TrEMBL record:
This is DUF3419 family protein. It comes from Sphingobium fuliginis ATCC 27551. It comes from the Bacteria. SUPFAM superfamilies: S-adenosyl-L-methionine-dependent methyltransferases. InterPro entries: DUF3419, SAM-dependent_MTases_sf.
Length: 405
């Protein structure tokens, strides 16, 4: 299964000859993507739940990624969630979170495990409560060893959000900032939006003006840590220079929202959830713990391609689809195959939500009009959701609803 899943990733990413410059970049990306990429997902679940209008009859199909949003969607009380992913580490992380929600004795233990995520007690709790209820594959993953020989479950004693491709990218970004004489943690000292703006403009923004930063961000491989393959790098840059695009996205993250309410910014600037006492995703909030525990059994985590999963489902059986930014990776044939299955399996008034590195939706002119014409693009709502997405790294959040306006 792991080999098949990796082949699916390579089919999505590899578009050029093996020994061409672009081909080598694509293969370097797929090699990096084989391990844990996201310990935390970087799409705002509050935006998702509002846009999708999840209700008690909803069957949600989503890409699993780091699992934060999968568990957070449970607070909206859907009938069931199917979480699919090609990355075995993400599948294992989702299954660990669901098992821990049901097996750990209380919210305090769950919070310590996934909000603080840096306590030796977490490993003991894993052995006592969680490991006995895990499926064999997930247990083998967490009790297996990483590339330097440490057991993977030990990441929850060392700070799991410093691990994975994204965690190492944020670590590298902090190191780079310090080499420019700047400490990104200073953002967390801000007491108001005005102070956030002042710190960003005087300390962080000038880092992007250096010749080295302009050169570094012009290299597609520099953004592999964000999970951005070469094709998505091109979409993100568009006609602008990449240093300017990244500066604008970081400005929104640093200044666009009050840091007291933005756990994405706290992760980026503090490399964790501020000791677990700062803002948190819905699934980690104490008020939602009972609902997450009670509904965790509604989630089915699958190690499968999104399109292949839909192909196995009955017509008219799904009404909420969450594609994250996966379509940025796809060629036209893959997009059309995906939307053919979405349209076939969609119930009346089904909703599809996805994100793009660039600002516009990527579907027009690429997906067959016979399929796309059946869907209503909610342009004004999409612009609003884009503005409100606290993760701030995407150019567009897009909502499509089955049926004409």
């Amino acid at each position: 299964m792991a080999s098949t899943a990796h082949q699916n990733v390579t089919r999505a990413v590899h578009r050029h000859r093996h020994l061409s410059k672009q081909g080598l970049l694509e293969r370097a990306f797929t090699f990096a993507f084989r391990g844990l990429v996201y310990a935390q997902i970087w799409e705002d679940p509050e935006v998702d739940m509002e846009a999708l209008a999840i209700g008690p009859d909803s069957h949600v199909v989503t890409i699993a990624s780091g699992g934060c949003n999968v568990l957070s969607y449970l607070t909206a009380d859907p009938a069931k969630i199917t979480a699919v992913d090609l990355n075995t580490a993400h599948v294992a992380l989702n299954r660990l979170k669901l098992a821990a929600a049901q097996a750990l004795p209380d919210h305090r233990a769950f919070h310590r495990f996934f909000a603080r995520a840096d306590c030796r007690e977490n490993v003991a709790a894993y052995r006592t409560f969680v490991a006995p209820v895990l499926d064999d594959a997930t247990r083998r993953y967490w009790e297996g060893r990483d590339f330097i020989g440490r057991r993977r479950i030990g990441g929850f004693a060392r700070g799991i959000y410093r691990h994975g491709l994204l965690g190492r990218f944020i670590c590298a970004a902090h190191l780079l900032a310090r080499l420019h004489g700047v400490d990104p943690r200073r953002m967390l000292d801000a007491k108001s939006r005005e102070e956030q703006r002042a710190i960003f403009e005087t300390e962080l923004a000038p880092v992007f003006d250096s010749a080295f930063m302009r050169w570094l961000t012009s290299q597609p491989a520099s953004l592999f840590g964000l999970g951005i393959p070469p094709a998505q790098y091109e979409a993100l840059a568009g006609d602008a220079r990449m240093d300017g695009v990244l500066k604008a996205r970081l400005e929104k993250l640093a200044c666009g929202f009050d840091l007291k309410d933005n756990y994405f910014a706290v992760q980026a600037f503090g490399r964790g959830y501020a000791g677990g006492e700062g803002p948190l995703p819905p699934y980690l909030q104490a008020a939602n713990h009972a609902a997450v525990v009670e509904r965790a059994g509604r989630v089915d985590v699958r190690h499968v391609n999104f399109t292949d999963f839909l192909a196995s489902q009955e017509a008219g059986s799904v009404d909420r689809y969450i594609l994250l930014d996966a379509q940025d990776w796809m060629d036209d044939a893959q997009l059309n195959a995906l939307w053919a299955q979405i349209t076939r399996t969609a119930k009346q008034n089904a909703r599809v939500l996805f994100r793009t590195a660039g600002e516009p939706s990527i579907l027009t002119g690429r997906v067959d009009d016979a399929l796309l014409s059946r869907w209503n693009y909610r342009a004004e709502e999409s612009r609003e959701y884009t503005a409100r997405d606290r993760s701030a790294i995407y150019g567009g959040v897009h909502l499509y609803v089955l049926g004409r306006a």
